[in-house]
Amino acid sequence: MKTWTHSDIIIAPSLLAADFGKITEEVTRSIHSGGDWIHLDVMDGNFVDNISFGPAIIQAVHESNDTFLDVHLMIQRPDHYLERFIESGSDLITVHVEAEHNVGETLERIRKAGVKAGLALNPATPFSEVEPFLDQIDLLLCMTVVPGFGGQSFMPEIMDKVSTAASLREERGLSYHIEVDGGIGTETAAVARQAGANVLVAGSSTFCAPDMAAAIESLR
Q1: Annotated catalytic residue, options 70, 79, 138, 181
Q2: What is the pTM of this model?
Q3: SS3 at position 179
Q4: Active-site annotation holds for 160
Q5: E strand or H helix at 128, and its extent?
């Protein structure tokens, strides 16, 4: 599988916006349309006020397609469920700094398992909460909407966090990706790129577009 660096522009269509009646076919459509990763939002109805899917869906996607699985755990106890998501075929697992777990230990467990580790922060969370862990991660996810539901409007004020993440990465000689998720379309993708993001999660603007390939190319 290809190795990506933070200088690459990575488009990660979000499975949450796909047709759940034919999930594996939708993943194939994403790949053929130029999507680099597949973003999988796992919601437990506790950490966020919505429920999506669990390890079985991730395993089904893993077994049906050879693509990079970017798994975002919006769950209260990522440490408790971690092994199941590792075993399901996740390539990168992102946990929230706000969840109920020892963040440093969880990140260490992910990386020891040979999986890339990501850390996410919600719009209301100050950047200082993730700063101590920047040398332990492969990806930082700055949520650009309040997590839990699709179709929300992009929050431009989050670009301050993206810019800070990019500056600290350079200052400290680190190499983590900076991902944005929420309200990403052609215009907001450009705003996020300018601030320093290189991984763009897009749901409605990719899977729901009349021409998915054209939509992904426009984002890129």
Answers
A1: 181
A2: 0.97
A3: strand
A4: no
A5: none
